[in-house]
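Most newcomers find our protein records easier to grasp once they have seen one. Sequence and backbone structure share a record, each on its own labelled line. Nothing more is needed to start thinking about how sequence determines fold. As an example, a complete record with its sequence and its structure tokens follows.
=====
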Amino acid sequence: MAVMRDMLLYLSKNRIANRMAKRFGLRLGAERFVAGETLAAAMKKVAALNESGLVVTLDHLGEFTRSEQEAKESAEEVVKGLQAIASAGAAANVSVKLTQLGLDISYPLCLSHMRTIVSEAKRLDSFVRIDMEDYAHNEPSIQMYEQLRAEFGDHIGIVLQAYLFKTEADMERLLVLKPNYRLVKGAYKEPPEVAFPDKTDVDRNFIHIIKKQLDNGHYAAVATHDDAIIEWVKGYVKEQAIPVDRFEFQMLYGIRTALQQQLAEEGYKVRTYVPYGTDWYGYFMRRLAERPENVSFVLKSMFKR
């Protein structure tokens, strides 16, 4: 299983495999995890999720942009997403990847695009979450969050990953900002010098950082499909009398939909991460890497008529 996971993560960054996959389009199996290739298609899914009692974070897929024009177009698409959410009165916000907005081209370029996006979010009284990517982009992402948090206040949040050794220190560093975190286990292949290689240690640290954020009194978005983690959170907030408006559960579109609905019906805030766009391949491959048994599902989808 570990070999399969490593292979899928390798393929997630392979340009040739990307081009081949797109010949099949979303029918390759990605439609299970991706809400469509256009904003209009995604907004229909957002409306349906809201109707069922779920809130949403909308993500225009893309990463590792290689030109300033591509970065500009990506930023414009995020702004359109914020405007579409506001126009529809949807219970939703947006998530962004900094590499999609030009981080690998230049930090100032990416920062400029982020200022445009978060400025619009502030105007619309909305919210933008910086998705955390691989370790090479961790520190620049945190630095950008610090700058934007100082400028735009509560309209910006960030993701922290439990599998990194440095995460607890990052939490201490950012504590003064009263941050709004999405806390995740982490989905990238990282070396043992920077990340816990053993799942047990990752799970233990995940609970530790969730507890730390809740105890600090700052908003915690707990992003997991793990039953044991979910039950721990439910038990801890009850034991500590932590109000339900101080945290939320987050899960991915197309994964454990019945559980998402169940938690919402129990009175918890549940946010579904809804990705869309034509650049779906890397995201899709990481979802398969998390659950390699889904590969059989994809193979069946490829040969459906």
